[in-house]
Amino acid sequence: MNSSIVLLPGDGIGPEIVEQARLVLAKVAERFGHTFQFSSHQIGGIAIDETGDPLPQATIDACRESAAILLGAVGGPKWDDPSAKTRPEAGLLKIRKELGLFANLRPIKLFDELAEASPLRADIVKGTDILFFRELTGGIYFGESGTSGSGDDETAFQSMTYSAGEVKRIVRMAAQAARGRSNRLTSVDKANVLEPSRLWRRVAAEVMANEFPDVQYDVVLVDSMAMHLINRPSEFDVVVTGNMFGDILTDEASMLPGSLGMLPSASLGDSGPGLYEPIHGSAPDIAGKGIANPLATILAAAMMLRHSLGLTEEAEAIEAAVAAVITDGLRTPDLARGDQSKSVSTDEMGAAVVAKLTV
Ligand code: NAI
Ligand code: MG
């Protein structure tokens, strides 16, 4: 089995949090008798500084040969100059494209002990555990666009296109994931208005009826979904949707748990390595202070074991260890809220997760 893992620490807090995730993966390897080969490569601002390119060819080559990729974050004020030829984010967009990563997975799981951090009432958010599948390489963001005319006739357009094949592959991936969870899938579209949504709805229904008759399936319009996420988020399990709807709904949902520091994500293709990362950015305001929350990246490492390496038990062990340190009351400053007296550092949080994995 290919078990080489590429680490792309990137910028800001990236190196600090990726190091903690690496230590957790190394502990898992020791406990379960695996060998992971780690190699670290450049992406983002640091890659621009050292090579002039936010995604050097050496990084692409290493990623292609790997089983999976763990990314910290890219970007920061140092590279924000609008006149710059190249920006750190370009490295991230390019690696997703190079690897054909068409599915973006975002679990939104609330740890009950952190429910008070949510902007919503604890009784509404408790029990929330949703896995979003957002289509990432099609739809309106990649549609034909243009402008014409001037004055009041100045016009701009951007078209939305989906093919049956694009719909099938992401619905299949989401339905497979539903089988490993509570066996429920919700597809979100705007089929009352949009032609690509009508295709999406019909093709998705066919895939579900023919290939996943055992999975409980329903469809929701995107505007209703925006309301349900605030009203009854705990009722959803796996949700699949197109690029733009997924962009907006996953950002809305990411606010439910109340901290960006706990949320991982994955981007997957049909074959080849997946890319795993926290959803937050490089947090330049706290970089180098040793106080970043490493748990989102550690949970991304768990997703990596599950989705790219087929190591379900190992993934669950990491997730249980994270839940246990939260239950023990460990909090990095972003989670500690009013009481900072008991807050722990990045390294202490990572070490606590490692300790929970030691049997
Ligand atoms: P951000 O997510 O980096 O930070 C927002 C706020 O959350 C900050 O106050 C930060 O300190 C805090 N925060 C984020 N992650 C944290 C963690 N693990 N532990 C504790 N606190 C945490 O978003 P922001 O400030 O908008 O962007 C900063 C830089 O990151 C920009 O250059 C942006 O372009 C880049 N960025 C990169 C992303 C990526 O690499 N995937 C995603 C989003 C932003
Ligand atoms: Mg977004």
Automatic annotation (TrEMBL):
UniProt-recorded Gene Ontology molecular function terms: 3-isopropylmalate dehydrogenase activity; magnesium ion binding; NAD binding
Pathway where it operates: Amino-acid biosynthesis; L-leucine biosynthesis; L-leucine from 3-methyl-2-oxobutanoate: step 3/4
Subcellular location(s) per record: Cytoplasm
SUPFAM superfamilies, per database record: Isocitrate/Isopropylmalate dehydrogenase-like
Cofactor, how bound (note): Binds 1 Mg(2+) or Mn(2+) ion per subunit.
GO cellular component, one term: cytosol
Isopropylmalate dehydrogenase-like domain span: 4-353
Signal sequence coordinates: none
Keywords assigned by UniProt, alphabetized: Amino-acid biosynthesis, Branched-chain amino acid biosynthesis, Cytoplasm, Leucine biosynthesis, Magnesium, Manganese, Metal-binding, NAD, Oxidoreductase
Principal location: cytoplasm
Binding positions for Mg(2+) per the UniProt entry: 223, 247, 251
Its EC number(s): 1.1.1.85
Pfam families named in the record: Iso_dh
Keyword Acyltransferase listed: no
UniProt site (Important for catalysis): 141, 190
Subunit text: Homodimer.
UniProt family annotation: Belongs to the isocitrate and isopropylmalate dehydrogenases family. LeuB type 1 subfamily.
HAMAP family: LeuB_type1
Protein name: 3-isopropylmalate dehydrogenase
Species in which this protein is naturally found: Rhodopirellula islandica
Species classification: Bacteria, Pseudomonadati, Planctomycetota, Planctomycetia, Pirellulales
Gene name of this polypeptide: leuB
